[in-house]
Design brief:
Length: about 400
């Protein structure tokens, strides 16, 4: 098969950010299929630009095409929408030049690129597989980013249109299934987030990463991921303030996002010597970063909609054999509790977060045992190789049905 993936926020293994799609593409390529990926040259995480144009994607059967877009992704909501629309248009023209395609794979968010993938699939007379990674626009409305009634109505219309016109749909969390079915999806498959266990070595102590970042001899509580509105990282600053007296404690925020400058300024104003901001690292270096952690943190704002999510970072933490402090309720809580891989704290509660960090610092053996539990559970239920095989079988069935 030749699969065309349109994904504005695509991150390669050499980039910071979620690399689910590169890992899946590599599996497809290693099993004899071609994958062409149309992606933005502007990083969704950092807002930094890479050269536009084609590039090889880590395997001879993978090509990454980056058409030009408006670069003001992180300036404001309006600039972000303009960026989305320019990618929708430029990716369409780039997609028209891709020949001999057997299936078009679209993914949301941003949802605008869904129109591109639908149109390309229809023009090329091939199946349209639409994947939902976040419930947009519902999440944007819930967090307050999208509040214009006309834009909300238009976005919800587009969402329903894409769900109804997809030949088949994939979601990455069981919490999304009811939502997409209620809005007209004809067939929904679950290919959940997970992790490639071969990327992580739980026995590694992350000594090199600790040395490079002056963390030697300290208990490290690590958050790795986006620094955006949804991530509620002010809670970690407030928890750090409550933990000033704990000796040799480092709360590390690894990543980037438009909220990071404000968070850094606030941390300086609060005098948080135990809080450290580090730049994002490529996925190829994430194993060392997580190995340096004693406990890892996953956090989102206390919004009802976020109970539906399966955050990628939780599965990476488990693959690395590190215990999880989970400030997210819902379906991901069920995973962590079933695995006995960490501790749930009430989302939005800085005192509860501080107490959880304090507990792990005082009881390191508890964290080590929970980390081992999480690794074993992930190997059994959320290994990326097994999940990629499920996706491949869905794609093959779609292409066969179209012949």
């Amino acid at each position: 098969m030749h699969i065309l993936l349109v994904h504005q926020a695509f991150a390669a293994l050499t980039d910071p950010g979620g690399t689910r799609h590169h890992e899946l593409a590599l599996y497809l390529a290693e099993n004899g299929h071609r994958v062409t990926i149309i992606a933005s040259p502007v990083s969704y995480l950092t807002g930094k630009s890479t050269p536009a144009g084609p590039a090889q994607g880590g395997h001879p059967a993978i090509q990454i095409v980056r058409p030009p877009v408006y670069s003001g992704l992180h300036r404001s909501f309006i600039h972000r929408v303009i960026n989305f629309i320019t990618f929708m248009l430029s990716s369409f023209w780039a997609g028209l030049r891709v020949r001999e395609v057997d299936l078009v794979w679209g993914t949301s968010p941003p949802i605008f690129q869904g129109l591109t993938t639908w149109a390309l699939a229809r023009l090329k007379r091939v199946p349209f597989l639409f994947e939902v990674r976040d419930l947009w626009p519902a999440f944007a409305v819930a967090v307050g980013v999208l509040d214009n009634p006309a834009l909300i109505r238009a976005s919800e219309w587009l969402e329903r249109f894409l769900y109804r016109h997809a030949d088949r749909m994939v979601v990455n969390s069981p919490g999304f299934i009811q939502h997409v079915r209620e809005r007209g999806a004809p067939q929904v498959d679950l290919v959940p987030n997970g992790a490639d266990v071969t990327m992580f070595e739980p026995q590694d102590d992350g000594a090199a990463f600790r040395r490079a970042n002056q963390l030697e001899g300290r208990f490290v509580a690590l958050y790795a991921g986006a620094h955006g509105m949804s991530n509620d990282l002010d809670v970690l600053l407030e928890a750090a303030a409550l933990l000033r007296e704990v000796p040799n404690l480092a709360i590390v925020l690894l990543g980037d996002g438009k909220e990071k400058p404000r968070l850094q300024q606030r941390a300086v104003a609060m005098g948080l010597a135990n809080l450290h901001f580090l730049p994002p690292v490529p996925k190829t270096e994430m194993a060392q970063a997580l190995a340096a952690a004693d406990v890892c943190i996953a956090i989102l704002k206390p919004i009802e909609m976020y109970k539906t999510v399966y955050p990628n970072k939780v599965f990476d933490y488990m693959a690395a054999g590190r215990p999880v402090i989970l400030a997210i309720d819902g379906v991901i809580r069920e995973v962590v509790e079933s695995a006995q891989a960490g501790t749930l704290v009430q989302p939005g509660d800085a005192a509860a977060m501080a107490e959880a960090i304090r507990h792990y610092a005082a009881h390191p053996t508890t964290g080590q045992l929970q980390g081992q539990n999480g690794r074993r559970y992930l190997e059994a239920h959320f290994d990326r190789t097994r999940l990629a095989q499920d996706l491949l079988e869905i794609m093959q069935a779609m292409v066969l049905q179209n012949r």
